Amino acid sequence: MTKRPSPISATVDFDADGIQHGFLKLPISVDESAWGAVMIPVTVVKNGDGPTALLTGGNHGDEYEGITSLLKLSSSLRAEDVTGRVIIVPCMNTPAVMAGKRTSGLDGGNLNRSFPGDPDGSVTEKIADYFTRVMTPMCDVVLDLHSGGRTLDIIPFGASHVLDDPEQQRRALEGAKAFGAPYAMMMFELDAAALFDTAVESQGKIFVATELGGGGTSTPESMAITERGVRNFLIHYGLLAGEVEMPAEPQVYLDMPDASCYVQSEHSGVLELCFALGERLEKGDVVARVYDMTRSGSAPVEYRASRSGVLAARRHPSLVNMGDTIAVIADIVDSLG
Ligand SMILES: [Zn+2]
């Protein structure tokens, strides 16, 4: 059955040259606003013919490197600097960003688990559907800026995926490297089916994702990496003039071949991480200890590394519950793809 058109309408003209700031408007009817709308900010910068890049932050509402850097870019990018079209959406899941949460403050939806979406679904599913059926077909390349949010802290990397089409995979991987973060990653997703990544990749478009820190805030270091990376991405795919600026230290390549990279807690308690982010560890090393906070005098539960590699991500809060990811160990590799 064919889906009806998206209920979201844009207040900008995506085909007009110059710079426009507006909204993607989704009608809602809630207690606070009977005939209201979710207002998703969007900036379109177009200068003649050329590729179209879509830059998205706030897919998860508590991941501030992307949100902040794209808000900055939307007020500084000039049309005359661009070849083609740059579409900037700093707060993709606006109700989540407004709530300061990973998921929507309106319906609890996790946007990046809601693709391809549904025009007749929840608010979050309607947003996903718009990006799948309206935004992605307009684009050649997509950069979706994630970081750890409130519950994770992650080393900074550009990432792409293993794809069926080797040329599409190669072009995405080159973009993930050119983002110019200290690390580049071939990423294994725990469940890829409902990701924005998959919705874009399945249309044959180039998709680059990032992780850039976390803890529910940004730092001068993570902001500098993010802003340089966004610029590098636009230069690499021909939307901005200039040279890609790589980090001073050689970029480290990481691979996550399977689910054994994820260390997940089987206990609740207080978490002690035994390695710092970016530190190398060996198979069998104690990665973390979880302490029972309901009594003193009992030994902690130890979690050991099931593989050697680098600590790529860690749980950020010290309180941990059963099932939480407490660490991610990635392989250091000589080449990717
Ligand atoms: Zn995210």
From TrEMBL:
InterPro entries given in the database record: AstE_AspA_cat (IPR055438), DoeB (IPR014336), N-alpha-Ac-DABA-like (IPR043795), N-alpha-Ac-DABA_deacetylase (IPR053138)
CDD domains: M14_ASTE_ASPA-like
Residue span(s) of domain Succinylglutamate desuccinylase/Aspartoacylase catalytic: 49-236
EC number: 3.5.1.125
Cofactor: Zn(2+)
Enzyme class: hydrolase
A molecular-function term among this protein's GO annotations: hydrolase activity
Record key words, sorted: Hydrolase, Metal-binding, Zinc
UniProt feature coiled coil, ranges: none
Pfam families the UniProt entry points to: AstE_AspA_cat
Encoding gene, per UniProt annotation: doeB
Name of the protein: N(2)-acetyl-L-2,4-diaminobutanoate deacetylase DoeB
Organism for this UniProt entry: Franzmannia qiaohouensis
PANTHER family for this protein: BLL3975 PROTEIN (PTHR37326:SF1)
